[in-house]
Each structure stands twice: as C-alpha cells, then as structure tokens.
Amino acid sequence: MGFIETIKTRARADKKTIVLPETEDRRTYEAVEKILAEGIANVILVGTKEAVQSGSEGLDVSGAVVVDPATNEKTQEYIDTLVELRKSKGMTPEQAKELLLTNYLYYGVMMVKMGDADGMVSGACHSTADTLRPCLQILKTKPGTKLVSAFFVMVVPDCELGADGTFVFGDCGLVQNPSSEELAAIAESSAASFKQLVQQEPVVALLSHSTKGSAKHADVDKVVEAAKIVKETCPDLCIDGEFQADAAIVPSVGASKAPGSPIAGKANVLVFPDLDAGNIGYKLVQRLAKAEAYGPVTQGIAKPVNDLSRGCSSDDIVGVVAITAVQAQTSN
User: Fold this and answer.
1) How far apart are CA 37 and CA 156, in angstroms?
2) Cβ-contact 28, 104 below 8 angstroms
3) 269 and 166, same domain (yes or no)
4) Is residue 235 part of a domain?
5) Domain enclosing residue 245, as ranges
6) In 114-244, which residue ranges form alpha helices assigned H by DSSP?
7) pLDDT at residue 320 above 80?
8) Residue 249 confidence (pLDDT) above 70
9) What would the pLDDT profile of 111-138 be if each residue is shown by its tens digit?
10) Can you state the angle between helices 26-38 and 314-329, rounded to 10 degrees?
11) Mean pLDDT across the chain, nearest whole number?
C-alpha cells in the first residue's frame, strides 16, 4: 500500500472533522466529493448554502456540513473569543465581526480553536501568508515548539532511495532564511513529522552545496552548526550534515564523499539550507521525477492547519486533508 493510501486508511480508522473555507474554488468541491465517498473525514464548508449549491453543481457534497458565518448560532461566541484573544492588539467587537463574516479563513481557524473542527486545510486560492496568519494569531504555537515551519511529503515512484521513495523535505514553504538554531528546530520537527506520518525511523540530512568540508563558506558553517545543535539536543536522533543532496540519499555517493558518516546515502528527511533551495528542490522532484508532493504541511502550530499550493489539484487537497486528519488524531 502506498503512502497516501496508508494515510487515508489511518484517517478512516479515527475519523476527524476538517474545515475547508475556500468555497469559492471548484477544486474544493471536487475534493469534498472524493473525501466523503472514501470516508476519509467529516467535512465542514464555510459559506452560504446558495454559494455552496452553485459552486458544487454536478457534484455530490451532500454529506458535508455547510456553516454560514452570517447565520451560525456560534458566530457571536467566536466574535467574543477573537476579541479576547486579540485585545492586546486593539481588536474591537466590530472589527472581529467584520473579519469573521468576510474572511472565511479566520472563521475556519476559530472553528478549530473552539473545538468545532479538528483541523483546517486552505491555500488553493490564498497565499501561505494568508493561510497561516490567522493560525499564528489565534491558535499560536504548540507548547515546547521553537518554530513554526513547513514540510512536504514527497513520494517518488519506482524509487528505492529514502523510505522506498518517500521523503520529508523541510522547510520548503515558510521560513525564508533560517539561522543555525532555526535549521536545527526545522530538523527536529521534520524528523518527528516523518515518524508520525511515515511510521518509520527518520534519518535526517542537513543539505548544503558542500559535503563534510568540501567547500568553505558562511552558508556551509550555518548548516554545520545546525547539525551540532541537534546532535546535542537530540542525541538519539539519526542526523548529520553538511551533505550535498546526492551524498545524502545515494549510498554509493555517500560512501565515497562521507565515508565516516552513518547517515550518508541513507537519508529520508532532507533539511534544506533556505527556502529558495527547498522550494526549488521539491518542485523539481515533483515535476521531473513525477513525484507526489503533499504540502506544505505545517508543523509547530497548536492544532493542525495546513496549506496548499495554489497550483494544487483536487487530489492534492484530498491527500492533505487525510494528512491533517492523521495529525489531528495525535493533536493535544
């Protein structure tokens, strides 16, 4: 069974409720029809019944719950809670009401905050910043988490590398130019995410244009320092760096370039030195290797809210909803 089918099976075993606020996008309804047919999650759509009926014409989304912020009996409670949460920023009841009635992403996050949904998926027609802003303002970070970051689960067909072609790539969607300390936090979170979703032991490589001192530059030093930090804070984690990508995942290259490393050539979690490298890397693997790319999945938020690429397909949405549901099963 492939990665996403395994995730769907796990989601079905303990069904969660996921809110989808982007009811202006046809792909949302196409995904909902599949999610409901496959029994992956319970679905809440935020919008008017008229808009949902119009947008889903020809599709069966009758199993979804439609919540209209203008008429929902819980909206006033959401307004009051949002005012309390944001009062230090000067939020007034009038501003909170306008925000919740006009920005469905904020409404969806409030549903998660108040326990009326277990998670949210958005981003098909909103930027990452628009999706994550309400999360950081309302849900905030998970206790003990140093940094909110993002990763992709990459499933490469006919590939023996990584975990039979499955990898976690981080951070490919959020942290622009992480410091050594932030890279270390990304590595720790990505390892935990890999173990949670893939259910195998993570083997983490911190990537660079250098392998074990083959190049000298401040960018290399940053990665080396990050590896040192993680080895000190998580001594039981299989992690090393710095590695070029081939030395990290190809056994023969790893043995040649880094013969003293137990990680070289065996990595299934790849931590990129910055967002440029990560974003370019995952898109190249997705397009050239025809890999399935699920994400950007967030890690470090108090409850699971996940972003989508604006170029996503309805099947991508289904996959991320399944991942979000599985995250919700272990969310405190």
Assistant:
1) 26
2) no
3) yes
4) yes
5) 149-288
6) 128-134, 161-164, 180-198, 218-233
7) yes
8) yes
9) 999 999 999 999 888 877 788 888 888 8
10) 50
11) 91
Quote the CA–CA distance of 128 and 152 in Å, as a whole number.
Answer: 14
Asked whether 246 and 201 are in contact (CB, 8 A), the reply is no
- Structural domains counted in the chain: 2
The residues near 24 (Cβ < 8 Å, ≥ 6 apart) are 47, 51, 55, 125
| Residue-level pLDDT at 325 | 96
Domain membership flag for residue 281? yes
9 & 31 share domain: yes
Look up residue 161 and give its two tokens.
């590398």
pLDDT band at 194 (very low <50, low <70, confident <90, very high): very high
What percent of the chain lies above the pLDDT cut of 70?
Answer: 99
CATH number of the domain that 257 lies in?
Answer: 3.40.50.10750
Structure token pair of residue 228 = 């040192």
Q: Say if CB 112 and CB 305 are below 8 A apart.
A: yes
pLDDT of residue 174: 86
Distance CA 103, CA 93 (A): 15
Q: Which tokens in the block code for residue 230?
A: 């993680």
